[in-house]
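Quick illustration, no need to memorize.
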Amino acid sequence: MIAEGQVGARGAEQAVHTGGPSLLAALLACSAVVLSPATSAQTGTEFPNRLVRIVCVNAPGGGLDIIGRLIADRLTKNLNQTVILENRSGAGGNIASEFVARAPADGYTLLETTNNHNINAFIYKAPGYNPRRDFVAVTQVTEAPSVVVAGAQTSYRSLKDLIAAARAQPGKITYASGGNGQPTHIAGEMFKKAASIDLVHVPYKGGGPATLDLVAGQVPVGMSALPSVTPHIQDGKLRALAVTSDKRWPTLPDTPSVAESGYPGYRHMTWIGILAPAGTPAAVIARLNKEIASVLANADLRQRIVTVGAEPVASSSAEFEAMLKAEYEATAKLVAEIGLKVD
Protein backbone atom coordinates (compact mmCIF):
# COMPACT_ATOMS: atom_id res chain seq x y z
CA MET A 1 0.00 0.00 0.00
CA ILE A 2 2.81 2.44 0.88
CA ALA A 3 4.64 1.59 -2.33
CA GLU A 4 1.49 2.19 -4.36
CA GLY A 5 0.95 5.54 -2.64
CA GLN A 6 4.53 6.56 -3.35
CA VAL A 7 4.17 5.64 -7.02
CA GLY A 8 0.91 7.57 -7.20
CA ALA A 9 2.53 10.64 -5.65
CA ARG A 10 5.46 10.54 -8.08
CA GLY A 11 3.03 10.16 -10.96
CA ALA A 12 1.09 13.24 -9.83
CA GLU A 13 4.27 15.30 -9.53
CA GLN A 14 5.43 14.22 -12.98
CA ALA A 15 2.05 15.09 -14.50
CA VAL A 16 2.27 18.67 -13.18
CA HIS A 17 5.73 19.23 -14.64
CA THR A 18 5.09 17.60 -18.03
CA GLY A 19 1.82 19.30 -18.84
CA GLY A 20 -0.27 16.10 -18.45
CA PRO A 21 -3.50 15.96 -16.43
CA SER A 22 -4.37 18.95 -14.31
CA LEU A 23 -2.93 19.23 -10.82
CA LEU A 24 -6.36 18.70 -9.32
CA ALA A 25 -7.00 15.54 -11.36
CA ALA A 26 -3.57 14.16 -10.52
CA LEU A 27 -4.03 14.81 -6.81
CA LEU A 28 -7.47 13.19 -6.85
CA ALA A 29 -6.03 10.13 -8.59
CA CYS A 30 -3.27 9.91 -6.00
CA SER A 31 -5.77 10.22 -3.15
CA ALA A 32 -7.88 7.44 -4.63
CA VAL A 33 -4.85 5.13 -4.71
CA VAL A 34 -3.91 5.87 -1.13
CA LEU A 35 -7.30 6.17 0.53
CA SER A 36 -9.85 3.96 -1.19
CA PRO A 37 -8.67 0.56 0.17
CA ALA A 38 -8.64 1.91 3.72
CA THR A 39 -12.03 3.50 3.24
CA SER A 40 -13.56 0.29 1.92
CA ALA A 41 -12.04 -1.66 4.82
CA GLN A 42 -13.61 0.74 7.30
CA THR A 43 -17.05 0.79 5.69
CA GLY A 44 -17.21 -2.75 4.33
CA THR A 45 -18.91 -1.43 1.18
CA GLU A 46 -16.64 -3.36 -1.18
CA PHE A 47 -16.50 -6.55 0.88
CA PRO A 48 -16.28 -9.18 -0.45
CA ASN A 49 -14.66 -8.72 -3.84
CA ARG A 50 -12.92 -12.11 -4.00
CA LEU A 51 -13.19 -15.66 -2.68
CA VAL A 52 -14.03 -16.14 1.01
CA ARG A 53 -12.79 -19.22 2.88
CA ILE A 54 -14.56 -20.69 5.89
CA VAL A 55 -12.03 -23.00 7.55
CA CYS A 56 -13.69 -25.90 9.37
CA VAL A 57 -11.92 -27.47 12.34
CA ASN A 58 -13.29 -30.95 11.56
CA ALA A 59 -12.98 -33.50 8.76
CA PRO A 60 -15.63 -33.84 6.04
CA GLY A 61 -18.82 -35.72 6.84
CA GLY A 62 -19.53 -34.57 10.39
CA GLY A 63 -22.17 -32.18 11.66
CA LEU A 64 -19.84 -29.19 11.55
CA ASP A 65 -18.95 -29.94 7.94
CA ILE A 66 -22.58 -30.52 6.90
CA ILE A 67 -23.83 -27.23 8.34
CA GLY A 68 -20.75 -25.30 7.18
CA ARG A 69 -21.34 -26.37 3.59
CA LEU A 70 -24.99 -25.36 3.76
CA ILE A 71 -23.94 -21.90 4.98
CA ALA A 72 -21.15 -21.52 2.41
CA ASP A 73 -23.40 -22.53 -0.48
CA ARG A 74 -26.10 -20.03 0.46
CA LEU A 75 -23.58 -17.25 1.17
CA THR A 76 -22.14 -17.72 -2.31
CA LYS A 77 -25.56 -16.92 -3.76
CA ASN A 78 -26.30 -14.03 -1.40
CA LEU A 79 -22.90 -12.34 -1.73
CA ASN A 80 -22.50 -13.03 -5.45
CA GLN A 81 -18.99 -14.14 -4.54
CA THR A 82 -17.57 -17.63 -4.10
CA VAL A 83 -17.55 -18.87 -0.50
CA ILE A 84 -15.92 -22.25 0.13
CA LEU A 85 -15.63 -24.52 3.15
CA GLU A 86 -12.09 -25.78 3.70
CA ASN A 87 -11.50 -28.65 6.11
CA ARG A 88 -8.30 -28.48 8.20
CA SER A 89 -8.85 -31.16 10.80
CA GLY A 90 -6.45 -32.41 13.44
CA ALA A 91 -5.18 -31.69 16.94
CA GLY A 92 -8.71 -31.25 18.24
CA GLY A 93 -9.27 -28.20 16.06
CA ASN A 94 -5.97 -26.50 16.82
CA ILE A 95 -4.63 -26.77 13.27
CA ALA A 96 -7.53 -24.85 11.73
CA SER A 97 -7.77 -22.37 14.58
CA GLU A 98 -4.07 -21.48 14.50
CA PHE A 99 -4.22 -21.13 10.72
CA VAL A 100 -7.09 -18.62 10.90
CA ALA A 101 -5.60 -16.78 13.88
CA ARG A 102 -2.55 -16.01 11.72
CA ALA A 103 -4.52 -15.13 8.59
CA PRO A 104 -4.95 -11.51 7.44
CA ALA A 105 -7.66 -9.73 9.42
CA ASP A 106 -9.72 -8.81 6.38
CA GLY A 107 -12.76 -11.09 6.54
CA TYR A 108 -11.66 -13.38 3.72
CA THR A 109 -10.52 -16.22 6.03
CA LEU A 110 -13.02 -17.25 8.68
CA LEU A 111 -13.18 -20.05 11.24
CA GLU A 112 -16.06 -22.47 11.70
CA THR A 113 -15.63 -24.04 15.08
CA THR A 114 -17.44 -25.31 18.12
CA ASN A 115 -17.05 -25.67 21.91
CA ASN A 116 -13.49 -26.97 21.63
CA HIS A 117 -12.46 -23.43 20.65
CA ASN A 118 -12.47 -22.58 24.36
CA ILE A 119 -11.77 -26.05 25.71
CA ASN A 120 -8.42 -26.47 23.94
CA ALA A 121 -6.91 -23.57 25.85
CA PHE A 122 -7.18 -25.69 29.00
CA ILE A 123 -6.33 -29.20 27.78
CA TYR A 124 -3.41 -28.55 25.42
CA LYS A 125 -0.07 -27.14 26.56
CA ALA A 126 0.35 -25.15 23.36
CA PRO A 127 -2.83 -25.02 21.24
CA GLY A 128 -1.28 -22.40 18.98
CA TYR A 129 -3.88 -19.71 19.56
CA ASN A 130 -5.55 -17.76 22.35
CA PRO A 131 -9.36 -17.94 22.11
CA ARG A 132 -9.83 -14.66 23.97
CA ARG A 133 -7.15 -12.64 22.17
CA ASP A 134 -6.82 -13.93 18.63
CA PHE A 135 -10.41 -13.88 17.36
CA VAL A 136 -13.47 -11.71 17.05
CA ALA A 137 -16.96 -13.22 17.14
CA VAL A 138 -19.10 -13.09 14.00
CA THR A 139 -22.16 -15.14 14.93
CA GLN A 140 -23.35 -18.31 16.62
CA VAL A 141 -24.90 -20.45 13.90
CA THR A 142 -26.55 -23.35 15.71
CA GLU A 143 -27.04 -25.20 18.97
CA ALA A 144 -27.66 -28.93 19.36
CA PRO A 145 -27.22 -31.76 21.83
CA SER A 146 -24.93 -34.70 21.39
CA VAL A 147 -26.44 -38.18 21.37
CA VAL A 148 -25.25 -41.47 22.84
CA VAL A 149 -25.49 -43.98 20.01
CA ALA A 150 -24.87 -47.71 19.74
CA GLY A 151 -24.23 -49.78 16.64
CA ALA A 152 -27.13 -51.85 15.36
CA GLN A 153 -24.98 -54.97 15.86
CA THR A 154 -24.68 -54.38 19.63
CA SER A 155 -27.07 -55.56 22.34
CA TYR A 156 -27.47 -52.04 23.77
CA ARG A 157 -31.05 -50.88 23.29
CA SER A 158 -31.16 -48.34 26.11
CA LEU A 159 -28.81 -46.23 28.17
CA LYS A 160 -29.52 -48.59 31.05
CA ASP A 161 -28.19 -51.51 28.98
CA LEU A 162 -24.97 -49.67 28.20
CA ILE A 163 -24.39 -48.63 31.80
CA ALA A 164 -24.99 -52.16 33.08
CA ALA A 165 -22.52 -53.58 30.54
CA ALA A 166 -19.92 -50.94 31.40
CA ARG A 167 -20.19 -51.73 35.11
CA ALA A 168 -19.85 -55.44 34.39
CA GLN A 169 -16.80 -54.84 32.15
CA PRO A 170 -15.01 -51.74 33.44
CA GLY A 171 -12.45 -50.40 30.98
CA LYS A 172 -13.48 -52.85 28.25
CA ILE A 173 -16.10 -50.95 26.22
CA THR A 174 -14.92 -48.23 23.86
CA TYR A 175 -16.74 -45.11 22.75
CA ALA A 176 -15.97 -42.89 19.78
CA SER A 177 -15.96 -39.11 19.67
CA GLY A 178 -15.09 -36.47 17.09
CA GLY A 179 -11.68 -35.97 18.68
CA ASN A 180 -9.79 -34.94 21.79
CA GLY A 181 -11.31 -31.80 23.23
CA GLN A 182 -14.27 -31.88 20.88
CA PRO A 183 -17.72 -31.25 22.43
CA THR A 184 -18.61 -34.91 22.01
CA HIS A 185 -15.49 -35.87 23.98
CA ILE A 186 -16.41 -33.52 26.83
CA ALA A 187 -20.01 -34.76 26.79
CA GLY A 188 -18.74 -38.34 26.93
CA GLU A 189 -16.44 -37.69 29.87
CA MET A 190 -19.23 -35.86 31.70
CA PHE A 191 -21.49 -38.87 31.11
CA LYS A 192 -18.86 -41.30 32.42
CA LYS A 193 -18.51 -39.24 35.57
CA ALA A 194 -22.26 -38.88 36.10
CA ALA A 195 -22.88 -42.62 35.66
CA SER A 196 -19.70 -43.71 37.48
CA ILE A 197 -18.61 -45.95 34.63
CA ASP A 198 -15.32 -46.57 32.83
CA LEU A 199 -15.58 -46.34 29.05
CA VAL A 200 -12.43 -46.13 26.91
CA HIS A 201 -12.32 -43.04 24.72
CA VAL A 202 -11.42 -43.47 21.03
CA PRO A 203 -10.81 -40.04 19.45
CA TYR A 204 -11.32 -39.53 15.70
CA LYS A 205 -10.40 -36.66 13.40
CA GLY A 206 -13.98 -35.40 13.23
CA GLY A 207 -17.50 -36.73 13.49
CA GLY A 208 -17.52 -38.08 9.93
CA PRO A 209 -14.77 -40.71 10.41
CA ALA A 210 -16.19 -41.63 13.83
CA THR A 211 -19.64 -42.18 12.35
CA LEU A 212 -18.27 -44.39 9.57
CA ASP A 213 -16.63 -46.70 12.11
CA LEU A 214 -19.73 -46.75 14.30
CA VAL A 215 -21.89 -47.81 11.37
CA ALA A 216 -19.29 -50.39 10.32
CA GLY A 217 -19.15 -51.85 13.83
CA GLN A 218 -15.49 -50.98 14.40
CA VAL A 219 -16.45 -49.28 17.66
CA PRO A 220 -19.64 -50.19 19.54
CA VAL A 221 -20.68 -46.90 21.09
CA GLY A 222 -20.33 -43.22 20.29
CA MET A 223 -20.99 -39.83 21.76
CA SER A 224 -21.89 -38.07 18.53
CA ALA A 225 -23.01 -34.71 17.22
CA LEU A 226 -26.65 -35.15 16.30
CA PRO A 227 -26.29 -33.85 12.70
CA SER A 228 -23.55 -36.44 12.05
CA VAL A 229 -25.64 -39.46 12.96
CA THR A 230 -29.27 -38.47 12.36
CA PRO A 231 -29.48 -40.15 8.91
CA HIS A 232 -28.04 -43.39 10.33
CA ILE A 233 -30.45 -43.34 13.27
CA GLN A 234 -33.31 -42.87 10.84
CA ASP A 235 -32.27 -45.81 8.67
CA GLY A 236 -31.65 -48.10 11.64
CA LYS A 237 -27.88 -48.41 11.33
CA LEU A 238 -27.38 -46.74 14.71
CA ARG A 239 -29.54 -46.69 17.85
CA ALA A 240 -30.05 -43.47 19.77
CA LEU A 241 -29.80 -44.24 23.49
CA ALA A 242 -29.98 -40.75 25.00
CA VAL A 243 -29.54 -37.08 24.13
CA THR A 244 -27.46 -34.66 26.18
CA SER A 245 -30.01 -31.82 26.28
CA ASP A 246 -31.87 -31.52 29.58
CA LYS A 247 -35.11 -32.56 27.84
CA ARG A 248 -35.99 -34.65 24.81
CA TRP A 249 -34.97 -33.11 21.50
CA PRO A 250 -37.68 -32.40 18.89
CA THR A 251 -36.09 -34.49 16.13
CA LEU A 252 -35.72 -37.52 18.46
CA PRO A 253 -38.96 -37.43 20.47
CA ASP A 254 -38.73 -41.11 21.42
CA THR A 255 -35.19 -40.83 22.78
CA PRO A 256 -34.86 -39.87 26.46
CA SER A 257 -32.31 -37.40 27.73
CA VAL A 258 -29.43 -38.52 29.96
CA ALA A 259 -31.00 -36.41 32.70
CA GLU A 260 -34.35 -38.19 32.58
CA SER A 261 -32.58 -41.55 32.38
CA GLY A 262 -31.55 -41.21 36.00
CA TYR A 263 -28.91 -38.46 35.99
CA PRO A 264 -30.69 -35.19 36.77
CA GLY A 265 -28.58 -32.11 36.23
CA TYR A 266 -26.67 -33.61 33.32
CA ARG A 267 -26.68 -31.28 30.31
CA HIS A 268 -24.24 -30.58 27.51
CA MET A 269 -25.00 -28.60 24.36
CA THR A 270 -22.84 -28.10 21.29
CA TRP A 271 -22.69 -24.78 19.48
CA ILE A 272 -21.38 -24.01 16.01
CA GLY A 273 -20.06 -20.53 15.37
CA ILE A 274 -18.16 -18.37 12.91
CA LEU A 275 -15.19 -16.26 14.02
CA ALA A 276 -12.69 -14.00 12.27
CA PRO A 277 -9.09 -13.03 13.09
CA ALA A 278 -8.77 -10.30 15.70
CA GLY A 279 -8.48 -6.89 14.09
CA THR A 280 -10.97 -7.59 11.30
CA PRO A 281 -12.76 -4.26 10.62
CA ALA A 282 -16.02 -3.84 12.50
CA ALA A 283 -17.85 -3.04 9.27
CA VAL A 284 -16.75 -6.34 7.74
CA ILE A 285 -17.87 -8.24 10.85
CA ALA A 286 -21.23 -6.45 10.67
CA ARG A 287 -21.61 -7.37 6.99
CA LEU A 288 -20.78 -11.01 7.64
CA ASN A 289 -23.15 -11.15 10.60
CA LYS A 290 -25.96 -9.62 8.54
CA GLU A 291 -25.44 -11.98 5.61
CA ILE A 292 -25.20 -15.14 7.72
CA ALA A 293 -28.34 -14.09 9.63
CA SER A 294 -30.06 -13.69 6.27
CA VAL A 295 -28.93 -17.17 5.27
CA LEU A 296 -30.25 -18.65 8.52
CA ALA A 297 -33.57 -16.85 8.09
CA ASN A 298 -34.24 -18.79 4.88
CA ALA A 299 -37.08 -21.21 5.62
CA ASP A 300 -35.71 -24.04 3.47
CA LEU A 301 -32.25 -23.82 5.00
CA ARG A 302 -33.63 -23.62 8.54
CA GLN A 303 -35.64 -26.76 7.88
CA ARG A 304 -32.59 -28.59 6.56
CA ILE A 305 -30.64 -27.66 9.70
CA VAL A 306 -33.53 -28.69 11.96
CA THR A 307 -33.91 -31.96 10.06
CA VAL A 308 -30.33 -33.00 10.88
CA GLY A 309 -30.92 -32.21 14.54
CA ALA A 310 -29.63 -28.68 15.16
CA GLU A 311 -31.40 -25.45 16.03
CA PRO A 312 -30.49 -22.27 14.07
CA VAL A 313 -29.42 -19.34 16.29
CA ALA A 314 -28.04 -16.36 14.28
CA SER A 315 -26.91 -14.29 17.26
CA SER A 316 -25.44 -10.83 17.02
CA SER A 317 -21.66 -10.52 17.21
CA ALA A 318 -21.95 -8.99 20.69
CA GLU A 319 -24.23 -11.78 21.92
CA PHE A 320 -21.88 -14.45 20.62
CA GLU A 321 -18.88 -12.70 22.17
CA ALA A 322 -20.63 -12.55 25.55
CA MET A 323 -21.45 -16.25 25.33
CA LEU A 324 -17.87 -17.14 24.43
CA LYS A 325 -16.52 -15.13 27.36
CA ALA A 326 -18.90 -16.77 29.83
CA GLU A 327 -18.17 -20.24 28.46
CA TYR A 328 -14.42 -19.67 28.63
CA GLU A 329 -14.71 -18.88 32.32
CA ALA A 330 -16.96 -21.89 32.97
CA THR A 331 -14.73 -24.23 30.94
CA ALA A 332 -11.79 -23.80 33.31
CA LYS A 333 -13.91 -25.17 36.14
CA LEU A 334 -15.40 -27.97 34.03
CA VAL A 335 -12.04 -29.26 32.80
CA ALA A 336 -10.68 -29.23 36.35
CA GLU A 337 -13.70 -31.21 37.59
CA ILE A 338 -13.36 -33.85 34.88
CA GLY A 339 -9.58 -33.94 35.20
CA LEU A 340 -9.14 -33.78 31.44
CA LYS A 341 -5.74 -33.30 29.82
CA VAL A 342 -4.64 -34.20 26.31
CA ASP A 343 -0.92 -33.37 26.59
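The longest helix spans residues 317-338.
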